[in-house]
């Protein structure tokens, strides 16, 4: 079968969870994405909110079965030799829609072809086919080694999804922990990390510090993790605003390679945001503001599809006045910036263009 050779690889990816402006929640999902010719395959399928079947939160037996299925060691789950490549991040129901493809062997090679959007047992290639994507021919050795590495533990692709919350405002931390758990991120609360066993510290991917924690206390926490040989991301909470803190935590947990992200830059200054994306995707900008009475306000600033480029987006000056913060979100990543005001912020925004 004629098909151009392509490279095949795997990389950690994330479906960003969050507390949305309307009060709803979006579930956090970690998964392993397919890297074709050095670029996530998901990015070639328009702006799709989906995850691969190689998700880190499914039972090990199911994960193993998914890998062996992609290796063609079991029968195809759908008619006509079709396999689910990306599915709904909220459930596994085909009725929600999934990207499927025919996966077959050709000698030592593996071929992925006839990509389609599918909502029932049979795919309509004429109506719902992804024309212009594939077919891809992968060298068998490279393909097998990449997938087999998920089974033998050679590929450290599953991130740590627990977060340690350290602060003095127990009520706020409890609300933050509850929100994180709701979207699928484990969270524990403490005042310090002294005396915590090394094996427990190894389960955390990030530490979130509250405002009341001193620099000395932060340094002590860092030493505890360093002594345990654990590398984690540290988050300084910007403000006591729950969706903002969740967004900061999501950003800290993102372990996808920077060169394989859709949303790569956010600068917010003087009623303007500079956003950079690497592939067509939906971008949402939300502002969180504290007024003089320390009451939180939320404003939706922008929601639209952006093409690969660096974009300047004008913001509502009233929504970002005073102590305010901007969150940029795509389906796969989140960036957070404090709003800059004055000449310094202007220079920052111009430098990003």
Q: Which spans have pLDDT < 50 for at least 5 consecutive residues? A: 343-353
The number of distinct β-strands equals 21
Summed up, the helix count is: 8
Strand order of the largest sheet: 1-10-9-8-7
What gyration radius follows from the Cα positions, in whole Å? 22 Å
What is the helix content?
Answer: 10-25%
**Cα end-to-end separation:** 46 Å
Averaged pLDDT: 89
SSE string, helices as H and strands as E: EEEEEEHEEEHEHEHEHEHEHEEEEEEEH
Give the SSE layout.
Layout lengths: L3 E2 L2 E8 L2 E2 L5 E2 L2 E8 L2 E2 L19 H11 L11 E5 L11 E9 L2 E10 L6 H4 L7 E3 L1 H13 L9 E5 L3 H13 L3 E5 L7 H4 L2 E6 L5 H13 L5 E4 L5 H12 L9 E7 L2 E6 L3 E10 L5 E11 L2 E6 L8 E7 L4 E5 L4 H9 L2
Parallel strand pairs: 1-10, 11-12, 11-13, 13-14
Antiparallel strand pairs: 2-5, 3-4, 5-6, 7-8, 8-9, 9-10, 15-16, 16-19, 17-18, 17-20, 20-21
Helix pairs in contact: 1-3
Mind explaining what this structure looks like?
By secondary structure, the protein is an alpha+beta fold. It is about 20% helix and about 35% strand. The chain contains eight helices and 21 strands. It has a five-stranded mixed sheet with strand order 1-10-9-8-7. A four-stranded parallel sheet has the order 12-11-13-14, with helices on one face. Strand 8 (about 100-105) and strand 9 (about 110-120) form a beta hairpin. Helix 1 packs antiparallel against helix 3 (about 140-150). The termini are far apart. Residues about 345-353 have low confidence and may be disordered.
